[in-house]
Amino acid sequence: MAELNITPVSLKCKICGGDIVNNYLAGTSYCANCGNRWSITDLYPDYAKYQRIIANITKANDIVESENKAASANEAKLLFKTSVIECSKFNDPISADLVRICEEGQKKADLLAIYAKGKGYYDKGSY
Questions:
Q1: pTM of the entire structure?
Q2: Rounded Cα–Cα distance for residues 80 and 60 (Å)
Q3: Tell me, what DSSP letter sits at residue 15?
Q4: Count of CB atoms within 10 A of residue 121's CB?
Q5: Is the separation of the CB atoms in 77 and 110 below 8 Å?
Q6: Which of 3, 39, 110, 115 has the fewest CB atoms within 10 Å, counting from its CB?
Q7: Rounded Cα–Cα distance for residues 4 and 20 (Å)
Q8: What is the per-residue pLDDT across 69-111, written as a single tens digit (0 to 9) for each?
Q9: Residue 10, pLDDT score
């Protein structure tokens, strides 16, 4: 994977000057100080180029949250890895944040795999 040399963009609220917090998966942004909300496309007009990546991340997160199977954990890890590779095509703050989300998701998927494997041993009485 290519190195991501990215300088974070610091957006400030137009109302109070507070920091803007982005929820990339929901497509929203809000001010951490006053709570004012915006669509993320208002702040990042080219946000649509991330839709496929975000769909993969959302699907992987759903798998990690709802499934208890090792195969599901592997599918989620693959979706996260694919998303990281696709993010490496862009060298901007959004892709860096999405990579961070994927790395956290991969850790959760690893834990799910461990849990599913242990649960499988327990269910089979192989302990």
A1: 0.74
A2: 7
A3: T
A4: 11
A5: yes
A6: 3
A7: 22
A8: 777 888 999 999 999 999 989 888 889 999 999 999 999 999 8
A9: 56
Rounded Cα–Cα distance for residues 89 and 66 (Å)? 30
> 101 with 25: CB under 8 angstroms?
yes
Look at the block and give the residue holding tokens 């998303």. Answer: 83
Residue type, 117: K
Please report which residue ranges of the chain form alpha helices under DSSP H: 40-43, 51-66, 70-87, 93-124
Terminal alpha carbon distance of the chain: 40
Q: 């982005």: which residue's tokens?
A: 22
Among the residue ranges 4-13, 39-48, 62-71, 103-112, the one predicted with the least confidence is 4-13
CA angle 115, 120, 123 (to 5 degrees): 120
DSSP state at residue 92: S
CB 115 within 8 A of CB 68: yes
Tokens matching residue 49: 């180029």
